[in-house]
Amino acid sequence: MHKILIVDDDRIIRKGLLTTIPWEANGFRLVGEAGDGEQALELIEAQRPQIVVTDIRMPFMDGLQLAEEAKKRYPDLKFIFLTGYEDFNYAKQALKIGAVDYLLKPVEREVLLEKVRKAAAEWDAEQGQQQKINEALPFLRQVFFRKLLAGEGSSEALLSEADSLGLRLHGVFYAVMLLKLDDYFDDAVHASNTRGALKFSVGKSAEEILYLAGAGGVFNLEEDAQAIVYTGTASKDRIAQQARGVAQKLCETVRENFHATLTIGIG
What we know:
Elements: E1 2-7, H1 11-19, E2 28-34, H2 37-47, E3 51-55, H3 63-73, E4 78-83, H4 88-96, E5 101-104, H5 109-150, H6 155-164, E6 173-181, H7 195-213, E7 216-220, E8 225-232, H8 236-258, E9 262-266
Parallel strand pairs: 1-2, 1-3, 3-4, 4-5
Antiparallel strand pairs: 6-8, 6-9, 7-8
Helix pairs in contact: 2-3, 7-8
């Protein structure tokens, strides 16, 4: 069930939108109401709606400002704007910031429902596409790493591709770490049917540590091995020190959470 937030500084209009439209009967759940953009931002943060129906002209923060600020945090959020005849040209700006549509007041119930259904359908389609991208991302990153190792493409092209894959590899100096799980092939230490899951968990832990540290990427190599590329804008010695800190943190995490040990070489 898609979640909807209603925003309008006119209390009568706001209550009318809340009470006269059978939201739940049409597959939507109201998660709040707000009288201005500042209140709406707080509710968006707390309730995470998929759709916001908002007036354009409001005190403190108007509807366009609300949409611009909210979409910085939640780009997939859908907006439907309500406006009067005097603001018709002003409302056209809404389409430039990705609004689903805008409607003139007074709003007809069925017309608003139609626009909300359209917004919900767009949101679902985008989520489906994003899911496909997320599922393909690990494979695409491995393909990228093989290109990086082979030196295929210019530095600019490789960095651009890294950005598109969510890998933060811009820096002045780079450290490369080779990770190997100790006793990976020893059945008495690691059962054969759990090795793949263990290696996956080590990779995810490395990604989390790198995210907090600032920049880098994790890549699978053959069987028991993985690689980390770590980078930053600090001095060479400082990057080397930070890389050792990442390696130490990862070894501790794997030992504590997975009862396994790593050997890590840094260059």
